[in-house]
Specification:
three-stranded antiparallel β-sheet, mainly alpha, 57% helix
Length: 188
Amino acid sequence: MNRRWRQGYRGFVLYCFFACLGVSGSGSITEAQAVTIYSYIDDQGNPVYTDTPETIPEQYRAKVKTHERPDPVTAAPSTMESVKERVKAQVKNLGRNAPTFPFKMDGLSAAQSQILTYAGAAAIVLLVIMYLSKSQMVRMLGFSLLIVVGIGAPVLMYVSDGGPMEVMKSKAEHTGQVQQERLQQAPQ
């Protein structure tokens, strides 16, 4: 009975490991899109660059130059991407489907939902491994990794696309533009 339990435990731990790799492998390689940059020279002779034409003052719109970066060539998959694909293929060969999600959560951007989903899956796997392990070293390692996930997930959510840092940065840029417009309108 004890040997049979250990074999089941090992299979469960391996399945959890492959599930985590499958979850983290659900992303795909994305291509960057072409970006249009607008530039003009202000009254002081300083070049000004922006990617939103609405922010260009009326007096400079006739002098605006557009610069467009072409689409980059699709890059070959990285080593990590190829490992993820191999693991997904191995899990599929075992007759299982690797979970492919992150869940879309209300109030969070897609990047934040993805970070939270992966951190939650990693935390669950670490808790299960800590609970089922008899080795003190494995428990300590699992606990240490759980702390890393607990610290890293909020930091990643803060700096992710659509996160609070990006919102504050866009508000600061808008405030700077408003101040620039006020300075330009002030009598000299």
